UniProtKB/TrEMBL annotation:
<comment type="similarity">
    <text>Belongs to the glutamine synthetase family.</text>
</comment>
<dbReference type="InterPro" id="IPR050292">
    <property type="entry name" value="Glutamine_Synthetase"/>
</dbReference>
<dbReference type="InterPro" id="IPR008146">
    <property type="entry name" value="Gln_synth_cat_dom"/>
</dbReference>
<feature type="domain" description="GS catalytic">
    <location>
        <begin position="79"/>
        <end position="339"/>
    </location>
</feature>
<dbReference type="GO" id="GO:0006542">
    <property type="term" value="P:glutamine biosynthetic process"/>
</dbReference>
<keyword id="KW-0436">Ligase</keyword>
<dbReference type="InterPro" id="IPR014746">
    <property type="entry name" value="Gln_synth/guanido_kin_cat_dom"/>
</dbReference>
<keyword id="KW-0547">Nucleotide-binding</keyword>
<keyword id="KW-0067">ATP-binding</keyword>
<dbReference type="Pfam" id="PF00120">
    <property type="entry name" value="Gln-synt_C"/>
</dbReference>
<protein>
    <recommendedName>
        <fullName>glutamine synthetase</fullName>
        <ecNumber>6.3.1.2</ecNumber>
    </recommendedName>
</protein>
<dbReference type="GO" id="GO:0004356">
    <property type="term" value="F:glutamine synthetase activity"/>
</dbReference>
<keyword id="KW-0963">Cytoplasm</keyword>
<dbReference type="InterPro" id="IPR036651">
    <property type="entry name" value="Gln_synt_N_sf"/>
</dbReference>
<dbReference type="GO" id="GO:0005737">
    <property type="term" value="C:cytoplasm"/>
</dbReference>
<dbReference type="GO" id="GO:0005524">
    <property type="term" value="F:ATP binding"/>
</dbReference>
Length: 339
């Protein structure tokens, strides 16, 4: 499979039969496809990562592919290529990423209504809803746990580095965490996890929305990005963390424009400064501050080393952005911008 375009709900894939069990992407041939192109052209699919197929089982594999032009150069929508270059340039820093992927389940018949919500109105109570629904159990508090559980197991089987899941701050809103992953694996595993989510939800006749604010008066959907380098994880790494946050603060407008597929227009509806979100118009940071643009967890502050969390990315963040080709250089340092 390969990402079809900038619409996250549009992943493309097809089946190929081979007479051996591939152990490495290079074992498989480059294939072609006419999808997303005119009838006069086609794109080439180059395998880049293998996963076990949780739907067919056995020796079957899901294959993540790079989309290339006929001259073997990446398509304009193929952001993995520039990401890989950035990761290779920063390999000595051992960059780790962890993405908290939120999503909302929508009714399969009425796709504008969240799964399980009343046809008219909202679930009760509508005041401080996250207190009741975050991490909740019970039929009155959360809907779609079967989707979440099936997706979680599919990721574990496939080999996606999924590290957790939980109910979020409104009914039918869920989150799973991918990582920590080093380098380009973060983008690959995130793409595959989304593909698996769409497959699982489809089988249950449920739609997944990647809109960062599907219900205007309720919490939005994000993809908080946790990041560290080897220097940040060492003793005294908090100084390196603070330097990186300072570098991020100087390009806030550039980053928020990159943090959703529509140049920040979608994220503007989410980052209002309310409901555990920061204000999109200004950069902020703090320890244990979930209303800040960038948060340093309290346990990281206490340990004096670890990672930081960029809370600005929307749930629709693309591979280009959590693992970006953009960087800020300092004296003998390369700070990867999570953008």
């Amino acid at each position: 499979m390969h990402p079809g375009n900038d619409n996250l709900a549009h992943y493309c894939g097809k089946t190929k039969v081979v007479d051996f069990v591939p152990k490495h992407p290079d074992d498989l041939p480059i294939w072609d496809s006419g999808v997303l192109t005119s009838y006069e052209d086609e794109i080439l699919l180059r395998p880049v990562r293998l996963y076990k197929d949780p739907f067919r089982g056995g020796n079957n594999r899901l294959v993540l592919c790079d989309a290339l032009n006929g001259d073997m150069k990446p398509l304009i929508s193929n952001h993995r290529h520039s990401c890989l270059e950035a990761m290779e340039a920063a390999a000595k820093q051992h960059p780790w990423f962890g993405i908290e992927q939120e999503y909302m389940l929508m009714d399969g018949n009425d796709r504008k209504r969240p799964l399980g919500w009343p046809v008219n109105g909202y679930p009760e109570p509508i005041s401080a809803p996250h207190v009741l629904y975050h991490g909740a159990v019970g039929a009155n508090n959360q809907y779609g746990r079967d989707v979440m559980e099936a997706h979680f197991r599919a990721c574990l089987y496939a080999g996606v580095n999924i590290s957790g899941e939980n109910a979020e701050g409104q009914p039918s809103q869920w989150e799973y965490q991918v990582g920590p992953c080093e380098g380009i694996q973060m983008g690959d595993d995130l793409i595959m996890s989304r593909y698996l989510l769409l497959r699982v939800a489809k089988d249950l006749h449920i739609k997944v929305t990647f809109d960062p604010k599907p219900v205007p008066s309720w919490m939005g959907n994000g993809a908080h990005c946790n990041f560290s380098t080897d220097a940040m994880r060492r003793e005294g790494g908090i100084a390196e963390i603070n330097r990186a946050i300072e570098a991020l603060s100087k390009r806030h407008d550039r980053h928020v424009a990159a943090y959703d597929p529509r140049g920040g227009a979608d994220n503007k509806r989410r980052l209002t400064g309310q409901m555990w979100s920061s204000d999109i118009s200004k950069f902020s940071s703090g320890v244990a501050n979930r209303a800040a643009s960038v948060r340093i967890p309290k346990r990281v502050s206490m340990a004096g080393k670890g990672y930081f969390e960029d809370r600005r990315p929307s749930l629709g963040i693309r591979l280009k952005y959590p693992i970006s080709g953009k960087s800020t250089r300092g004296p003998n340092k390369l700070y990867l911008l999570i953008c």
